[in-house]
Amino acid sequence: MLFTKEEESRILQTIQVAERGTSGEIRLFIEDFCLRDHPVERAEEVFQLFGMFNTKNRNAVLIYLAEKSRHFALWGDAGIHERVGFQFWEDEKRLLRDHLQQDDAVGGIIEVISLIGNRLRTHFPSDENHDDNELPDEIIYGD
Questions:
Q1: Which of 27, 29, 56, 120 has the highest CB neighbour number within 10 Å of its CB?
Q2: For the domain 5-141, what is the CATH code?
């Protein structure tokens, strides 16, 4: 999924705002095709590949999109998942699916990032130095 520079900038800015006030981490991974039977398997693989499990509080979240396969998944590490539960992820998936079906990937991604950020701030407030950004704020494009 190739975003315009302006769209990429909006997404990155949303990630930065979402991570402000929390030790949680959010990343977006995009590739053309999902080569697994289930996109959640690929999301978990990407999560591991990029070392997202290495956060102090196990509170990183990956948004995974395979554009041409028309697949997506959300993967939250153990720390955030045990606090928000399955229903939160189901609600976020439904929201993103609705946006994708309306050909509004950017709007859906931005909304989901913002909602995840709200939950991360609730459950994992930033340390007093606000120096707890453990992973780069970036959109990662796969092959």
A1: 120
A2: 3.10.310.50
